[in-house]
Design goal:
By secondary structure, the protein is of the alpha/beta class. It has five helices and five strands, in the order βαβαβααβαβ. The protein has a five-stranded parallel β-sheet with strand order 2-1-3-4-5, with helices on both faces. α5 links the parallel β4 and β5. α2 packs parallel to α4.
């Protein structure tokens, strides 16, 4: 069975997607998309799992995008995994305030 996961990097850096892809099972399709594309895919029900890498300079402002996703996907199941700056001690707690399913620190730790 193949799984499709959406991936958004707030900085637009595709390298983070490569780090994540290496941790997924081989039959998983990781679709790198913009915030607008992700919103559209969630609205259409095409993506039910979204990984958001908050790796931009203003990652706290980027987290507000999660609220919009929950509103768009209100009638569809949606799980959001947030990747936040691991160097910021508040980042994990702040991400959970946005009702994400899980949070991990950046850079991605393959042992986590």
């Amino acid at each position: 069975m193949s799984f499709r996961i959406g991936f958004v990097s707030s900085s637009g850096n595709p390298a983070t997607a490569l780090d994540v892809q290496s941790l997924l099972p081989p039959d998983t399709q990781l679709d790198v998309m913009s915030i607008d594309e992700a919103t559209q895919q969630v609205a259409e029900g095409a993506v039910v799992l979204l990984i958001l890498a908050m790796d931009g300079a203003d990652w706290r402002a980027d987290l507000r995008f999660i609220d919009n996703l929950h509103l768009v996907g209100e009638k569809r199941p949606l799980a959001v995994l947030a990747l936040v700056p691991g160097a910021d001690p508040e980042a994990l707690a702040i991400a959970f305030e946005y009702n994400v399913a899980d949070v991990a620190g950046l850079p991605v730790n393959p042992h986590e």
